[in-house]
Every structure is written in C-alpha cells, then in structure tokens.
Write a structure and sequence with these properties.
With about 190 residues, this protein is α/β, with parallel strands linked by helices. The chain has 6 helices and 9 strands.
Length: about 190
C-alpha cells in the first residue's frame, strides 16, 4: 500500500484489483495515481498483490487476521474508491470478490462513492467486469460514479507505464477530476 499526500479535497483510494505479479492493472493504477496527484487530490494505492497470505485461510471468514486490518482501514478511511479492474475470463478477478467479501459489512461501501476503470486485452476493455462490479456495489449501497473508462487492447495502449492514446489519457484525466468533484459534493 502506498500513500501520496496532497493538497486539498477528499481522500481517494485507488484499488489495483488483481494479485497478479507485474500486472498491467498495477501499471495503470500508478498512472491514474499520478493523474489524481497532478489534479491536487489526496490519494493512496491499495494493491491486492500485497494482501497478506493468511487472509486466504478459511478461518479468516470468522476472524480477520490482524495483517488485513490496514486494507480494511484504508477503504473505511477513504472518501471515494476507484476500482481499476482487469477482465479475466469474462469477469473481474476472484481475488477482488474475495477482498470485497472480507471487508466490513455494510460500512465499507455504504454511501461511499465508487468509480471504475476497466482494462483488458480484448476489444471491450473489461466492460463485463465493470458492469458486474456495479451490480455488487449497487447492492452494497455505494454511490456509483457514471463515467467509467474502458481500456481495450491494453497491451498495445499501455507502454512503459504510459498511455499511448491521447484521447484515452484525456478520458482518464476527465474521470479523475470529475470523480474528485463528485466525491467532494457528496462529502459536503
């Protein structure tokens, strides 16, 4: 988990929603973090690749390990959450669902603004993943930010941690400033 201090406004948590080592999701999350920071928004990155191994013990359903507390606290302390999710087999990663299941209910997403960025090797850019997450977080009573960004062909678009498509980068910048404003309005 990394934290970036900043200037004003809400605290946004950027969730890198896979535990795959060296993932494009993490590279994209780092780029999005930079966009928020450049916009003067306080943000932190929560990377599911950093989840403690003991969280995967079946006994964790009954009693969360102490090593999971910083992950839950990061979500609970955030004013808004940006979920950066890849598409795996027509859905989002199983580790993301497990992570959501391990978070305190209902406090983790109840009335919390949530925003989505989907990425995939295929042509739809994780559209299915994001739509499925919208159903889950809608059930959890999150405030869903409507301006989603989908990144198809991520292997061709993301090079050396940078987006090669100026229009796509502009959409990510617009989403970041729009979501920060959305969170600030709901916070007020």
């Amino acid at each position: 988990m990394s934290t970036r201090s900043s200037f004003i406004g809400p605290m946004i948590t950027l969730l890198s929603a896979t535990n795959r080592p060296g993932s494009n999701t993490r590279l994209l999350t780092t780029l999005i973090e930079r966009l928020y920071t450049q916009a003067g928004v306080t943000c932190q990155v929560l990377d599911l690749a950093d989840l403690p191994p003991e969280i995967f013990n079946p006994a964790s359903y009954a009693e969360k390990p102490a090593a999971f507390a910083p992950f839950a606290e990061a979500i609970l302390a955030s004013d808004g959450v940006v979920i950066v999710t890849p598409e795996y087999n027509g859905s989002f990663p199983g580790v993301l669902k497990y992570f959501i299941d391990m978070l305190p209910f209902p406090a983790s997403f109840e009335n919390r603004p949530v925003c989505f960025v989907g990425l995939a090797a295929g042509m739809w850019g994780a559209l299915r993943s994001v739509e499925q997450l919208q159903h889950i977080l809608g059930y959890r009573n999150a405030h869903l930010y409507p301006n989603r960004v989908f990144i198809p062909g991520v292997g061709q678009v993301l090079k050396d941690g940078e987006i090669q498509d100026a229009d796509l980068l502009a959409r990510l910048q617009k989403q970041a400033t729009g979501f920060a404003a959305f969170v600030q309005r709901l916070k007020a």
